[in-house]
Amino acid sequence: MGQRGGRSRLGDAAAAFASNTRNRDLRRAQLSFLGAWTAEWAFTVGLGIVAYRDGGATAVGLVGLLRMVPSAVLTPLLSPLADRGRRERVLVLVSTVRGVATAATAVVVGVAGPPQVVYALAVVSTVAATLYRPAHSALLPSLCRTGYELASANVVRGLLDSVATLAGPLLAAVLLRFVGLTAVFAVSAGASCWAAVLLLRLRYDAPPRPSAPVEVHLVGEAADGVRAVVRNRDLALIVGLAAAQTFTRGALTVLTVVVAIDLLRTGEPGVGTLSAAIGAGAVLGSLAASLLVGTRRLGAWFAVGVALFGLPVTLIGVLPYQAAALALLACVGVGNALIDVGGFTLLARTAPDDVLARVFGVLESLVALSTGTGAVVAALVVEQAGVRTALLTMGLLGPVAAAASWHRLRQLDRSIGVRDRDIDLLRAVAMLDLLPLPAIEQLARRMEPVAVPAGGVVFEQGDVGDRYYVIESGSVEVVGDGRAVATLGPGEGFGEIALLRSTRRTATVRATSALRLQTLRSDHFLPVVLGYTPSAREAGTVVDTMLHRYAPRDAPEPPAGRQIP
């Protein structure tokens, strides 16, 4: 039994990677993320070296805060742009801006220009970088059809994030040793431009969203994202835990520099080596996280990831040796991988699609603010109490927050499991099976159960139609003008003709056994089905076929098992 379970997990992991490889648009989006985040990590190492040369640990912390505060303010204000149109266009724009700003940084460093100019360019690059992830996170569900495929996409993206966390600092370390600091920024600029080019040819049908207002009110639209988080305690919990984790991440931007240069005495290349250890652990963690793609416990693993991101930092203060530091930072990388697959999947499945980029914008804003705050606090503790005290204290926030949130995250896991069953039920209906994940998840959230006893009537011929029905259990008989025309069972739907054609019910539907239905009101059903081109086309075909074949007065006897209004 255990061996079969292990094979099943390995099969799920292999299928996760295969689904991303087969889907052309998903593949290009994932490779773009790899380029963007390799650029980010290489840039962060290079910027840390510039700041440390300029003013030591305090400068590293202040620069970390300086580059994050504008991002914290601007990201939620700009993220509504990704909810107004095609999200990949926002990604192309911000990647291009990052590439130009980073290339300019390379020029300034190359001519030994003032570090203040480098810091200003870092702010521009970081604002663009923090806008990239919410737009990319909001794009991924539109390229997926099921919760499994979205979890797979987040596993793969987590692996690529881990590879970038390894490759960016390692590349920076090699360039610092053999070429110089200018080359670090030049390579980072090239990676950002590559990320933009990959997204120029995405071809997919965006899921239906409400029409954006003609006038642009970015502040009001950004506030919608904030309200969505504040009003949903699950969203608020996920975002809060992410802020706790990134506080530690901000502290690490200072601590890796100080530990390498002052504590371990490995010099400037050692900064890249320590950061690469995080990436190496993240790669291994992402491969392990791929085994979780089919699990119903993403919330629990998310909590484990948050705890792992902090506890090893504390332990470095206890074991201040290079081998121990590399191993413990690798554990931080494992935690990062678990956060990617758990946190981003849960957030994407909890927030409504029409404000999804704005919710991710709120996340990135808090992440930027907490990262900058973590960097400054770590620098102050290092200056006042020493690097070992900073290590001992800065890593405790994540484990404490994870322990406090454990019960609520397990409840969230259970609710997602129930919704997955509802989505499976909807997928059994041909026209609904065509919907992308955000759209069908929207329907699943709004389904209302109805029970009908054997012999009971669901609706009569001639009634006004206001709902669509999907059979969860039991069976019904469809009767037109007193003549039975079909029998329907679990996984089949009915009631669409009256909704799609704005007409009265064309038949009577009666329960032939105890019946459990899931129902969708017309104002929930129609915008989703008609707002997405493939499902609208399929719905039209189904209705035309039904009207032609099952008109109550003159149609021949149809086979059982068809969808009937």
TrEMBL record:
GO terms for molecular function: transmembrane transporter activity. It comes from the Bacteria. It holds the Pfam family MFS_1. The chain crosses the membrane at residues 31-52, 58-78, 90-111, 181-200, 235-261, 273-293, 300-319, 325-347, 359-381, 387-406. It is found in: Cell inner membrane. GO terms for cellular component: plasma membrane. Residues 431-529 form the Cyclic nucleotide-binding domain. InterPro entries: cNMP-bd_CS, cNMP-bd_dom, cNMP-bd_dom_sf, MFS, MFS_trans_sf, RmlC-like_jellyroll. The keyword Transmembrane helix applies. Keywords: Cell membrane, Membrane, Transmembrane, Transmembrane helix, Transport. It is a multi-pass membrane protein. This is Major Facilitator Superfamily protein. It comes from Geodermatophilus obscurus.
